[in-house]
Structures are given as structure tokens and as C-alpha cells.
Amino acid sequence: MPKRAKKGSSLAMLDFAVRALLIVLSVLLALFLNNIREQQQVTADLKIAYQSLRAEVERNRDTLAVSVESHGQIMSLVDSLLKENKGELTAADLRLHEINFPELQNAAWTTLHAAGLSQHLKFNDLNPLTKLYQSQEAFLTSQAISHDRSDLKDLLRFFKQEKRLLSEINTMLGAGKNWRYLE
């Protein structure tokens, strides 16, 4: 009888070990599948974020392009006024002409960070976007300064900065590697 009891207890131990192994494997499989689902969700969210970012950058580009064209006309006017007034120009000379300051958006950029998606981007993808939005922020700051003052030099600097930002946006939009998540 002791031999049989020993055999029964070893079978029970084997059964226990197999069940424990199955439980561990089931938990690991569930964790693996959950991780895959989370990765798919992050990838889908990144695609939406990139679509939103690209649309936002394109809208900002279009807004700036209209503004640059309008401000180019103002600069032509300034040149003609300078010639007429023999190099002297006052703020009153420009008051009759509306200077439209572009309203640039950054909602998609802010949402990307608020949702925590920026931590899933590679440095080479995030860096150009960060630089672009920092340039945009600096531009908006200079816009506020130029808007408050009637100094022609500040306005000219603002117009140059506006053209530079438009160029940066066009460069960003032309760089296909930055939009690979959309493919």
C-alpha cells in the first residue's frame, strides 16, 4: 500500500504542476495579447495624431501664405510711401492699411502631448515637429510685440520672421519621412 500511496501522490503532484504551468502560460498569453492590442491602439492613435498634425500644419501654412502675400502688398506700399515722403514714414501713414496678423493653431500639437502620444514617437520624428512648433510660438510672441507697437522696424522684422516660418513649414511638409505614420 505505501507504494501505491507514493504513486498516487506523485500523480497528484504532476497534475498540480501541469495545472500551474497551464495557468502561468494562460496569464502570459493574456498579457502578450493585451500588449499587442495596446500597441495597435497606440499605432492607430498615432496615425490620427499625425493626420491632425499635418492638417494643422497645412492650415497654418495656408494662413501664413495669405498673410505673407498681404504683407508683401503692405511692404510695397511702405516702399512707395518712403519714396514719396523722402525716407520719412510715420505710424499714421500705415494706420489706414490693415495689417492682418495670422492666427496659427496648435491644438493637434497640444493634444499629442496631453494624450501622452509624444512619448511613443522616435526622436527623429518628434524633433522637427518640436522645432517647428517652437518657431511658431516664437513667431506668435513676436507678433504680439509687433501688434502692440507701431514701430516700423519691428513690423519689418515680423514680416521677415513670418516668411521664415512659412519656409520652415513648407520644408516640414515636404519631408516625407516625418509623415511615415500616415502610410
Structure description:
This protein has 183 residues and is mostly helical. It has one domain (42-182). 79% of the residues lie in helices and 0% in strands. It has helices at 2-84, 91-95, 107-114, 123-148, 152-174. The longest helix has 83 residues, at 2-84.
Helix content: over 70%
Please indicate the percent range of residues in DSSP E strands (runs of 2 or more).
under 5%
What number of domains? 1
Order of helices and strands: HHHHH
- Content-based structural category: mainly alpha
Give the overall shape: rod-shaped
Distance between the termini: 71 Å
Largest sheet: none
> Uncertain spans, ≥5 residues at pLDDT below 50?
none
β-strand number: 0
Tally the helices: what do you get? Answer: 5
Radius of gyration: 31 Å
Short note summarizing the structure:
The chain has 183 residues and is mostly helical. It has five helices and no strands. The protein has one domain.
SSE layout:
Elements: H1 2-84, H2 91-95, H3 107-114, H4 123-148, H5 152-174
Helix pairs in contact: 1-3, 1-5, 4-5
Throw out a few tags for this protein:
mainly alpha, 5 helices, 79% helix, 0% strand, 183 residues
